[in-house]
Amino acid sequence: MNRRDWVHHSLSVEQLGEAYLLANQVENAGACADRAVMLARGRGERGNEAWALRLLGEIASHHARPDVATAAAHYDAAMTPGLRARDAPTRASGVAAGPSSSMEPGRDYSGP
Fold this sequence. Notes:
The protein is an all-alpha fold.
């Protein structure tokens, strides 16, 4: 495989994590989200990093007793100026994580 084949690999891993979370496989979802953050940071894919951090926030809030502080920290990290949703790829299929997602594809979070 050449380098081009690995472009946006972090996004694929993040989407797998979304699927695991929807299947209530929280441990697998967390492993994918952590891996996606690492891949995105390593490749400078800032928008994909934001999606993966948002997924970590979803995972932290998914439990019967949500870890609100951890979820908020992940959501805040995803919304830092360098990781705003305008850098994230557009998702034709919409939000995979459901209505509790704090970031919506297509919404401009860049401010005024």
